[in-house]
Amino acid sequence: MSAHGDPIPMTARGGHALTGTADVPGDKSISHRSLILGAMAVGETRVSGLLEGQDVLDTGRAMAALGAEVIRHGPGDWSVHGVGVGGFAEPEQVIDCGNSGTGVRLIMGAVATHDMAVTFTGDASLNGRPMGRVTDPLSLFGARAVGRAGGRLPLTLVGAAEPVPVRYATPVASAQVKSAVLLAGLNAPGRTVVVEREATRDHSERMLAGFGAEIETRRTDEGFEITLTGRPELRPQTIAVPRDPSSAAFPVCAALITEGSDVLVPNIGLNPTRAGLFDTLVEMGADLAFENRREEGGEPVADMRARFSPDMKGIRVPSERAASMIDEYPVLSVVAANAAGVTEMPGVAELRVKESDRIDAMAQGLRANGVEVEDGPDWWQVTGRGPGGVPGGATVAARLDHRIAMSFLCLGMAAKAPVTVDDAQPIATSFPIFEDLMKALGAEIVRGNG
Ligand SMILES: O=C(O)C1=C[C@@H](OP(=O)(O)O)[C@@H](O)[C@H](O)C1
Ligand SMILES: C=C(OP(=O)(O)O)C(=O)O
């Protein structure tokens, strides 16, 4: 659901070391998928560590509207009584996915091979994002979409009465597109194949296999070819959601740039399709240690320790790494602003179609705080001012984008003068305990204009 009420400005002020343990919430991508696949299994799936951010809550509500029974037993502890593949019922109301691209695109995929019509909407951010990238491949299954200009939400999807399986090569590196096609393929007879040139996060594939679907990934000359056999009976699972590396990125990056900091972030999911930020930080010279590497619930995890790193240097981030850290570029640019030299970030056009145009949002806000940024259609670069060298002092627009809001608050923790974001409400979509968690580490964050 869309954020309501007046904006909540928030200000971060520097001069405080961050120390202690940061227990970040569950992984957003895996949380969405637990609810959706749980709803498509026969019987009760039990989920612990579910992220209770607004994006995921909206997906839970959508699953209930489609006929699944979704119950909260306690903090992060949920069950989903699924209706089986092909068993969704036509919802009586519009499905409001709020701020969530993952929610709306995956659910569109899941309903596209059902003989029914579903209308989707979201907040002002989501209603501005491109949906043709999902409705195009869904039309190959036999679904039809009618939306606003450019295929935007609100949009009605009329699912295929007699779906056929599909072979689809994704034109953009997007796990949401890949996952939408795979979820549609679940209720199409025969084999649905998705080919992606670059590997994107593979949580859907891992989880589909865990629920008992026949799914296999092969490397071919075209890239990664994923083949799913349709109409499986999905077996309900017990899922322990690992903690979100994209949320861990905030306390980790804030610690790296704030003098005297030493923060432990336990149990972080380190799936290689998600871990690009940490490779990049290590290459820049970050003091980052990974302890207790292990596997939990089919996903690699480790405890991460981040210490103040005054000797970080700018690098050119390889564009092949972009998909594995796509949500982390905003906070990387904050680290880059506190490193020595230039950090170049090529091959990132996708950043322009997230909750906001993230290149523009960060470039404008960084410039307002005294940092030099250059950008083009699919690249940007930040000239670092060295440790503690960012002047700060400006108020920036969060643009309904949680990652922009959190990134600028991290900037303020290391800047010479406070940094204010005009509205911190979107943070609740992915990291509802951000403010409390950062304050517990020692950060000075206040509501208001500081
Ligand atoms: O599949 C997912 O869970 C996600 C995929 C990514 O989006 P794209 O598929 O648009 O790259 C990412 O930005 C988003 O936060 C979560
Ligand atoms: C891009 C993001 O999410 P979504 O696409 O699900 O809105 C994100 O969380 O950074």
UniProtKB/TrEMBL annotation:
Query: What's its top-level EC category?
Result: transferase
Enumerate the CDD domains for this protein.
EPSP_synthase
Alphabetically list the UniProt keywords: Amino-acid biosynthesis, Aromatic amino acid biosynthesis, Cytoplasm, Transferase
Give me the residues that bind phosphoenolpyruvate, please.
28, 101, 129, 176, 358, 403
Outline the segment boundaries, as ranges, of region: Disordered.
1-25
Q: Which residues form the active site?
A: 327
Q: Gene3D superfamilies from the entry? A: Enolpyruvate transferase domain
Pathway in which this enzyme or protein is active: Metabolic intermediate biosynthesis; chorismate biosynthesis; chorismate from D-erythrose 4-phosphate and phosphoenolpyruvate: step 6/7
Q: By its UniProt entry, which InterPro entries does this protein fall under?
A: Enolpyruvate_Tfrase_dom, Enolpyruvate_Tfrase_sf, EPSP_synthase, EPSP_synthase_CS, RNA3'P_cycl/enolpyr_Trfase_a/b
Q: Which GO terms describe its biological process?
A: amino acid biosynthetic process; aromatic amino acid family biosynthetic process; chorismate biosynthetic process
Q: One Pfam annotation, family name?
A: EPSP_synthase
What does the record give under GO molecular function? 3-phosphoshikimate 1-carboxyvinyltransferase activity
Keyword Flavoprotein among record annotations:
no
**PROSITE patterns, A to Z:** EPSP_SYNTHASE_1, EPSP_SYNTHASE_2
The record's subcellular locations are: Cytoplasm
Q: Which GO terms describe its cellular component?
A: cytoplasm
Complexes and interactors: Monomer.
The record describes the protein's role as: Catalyzes the transfer of the enolpyruvyl moiety of phosphoenolpyruvate (PEP) to the 5-hydroxyl of shikimate-3-phosphate (S3P) to produce enolpyruvyl shikimate-3-phosphate and inorganic phosphate.
* Similarity annotation: Belongs to the EPSP synthase family.
Q: What protein does this entry describe?
A: 3-phosphoshikimate 1-carboxyvinyltransferase
In the UniProt record, what gene is named as encoding this protein? aroA
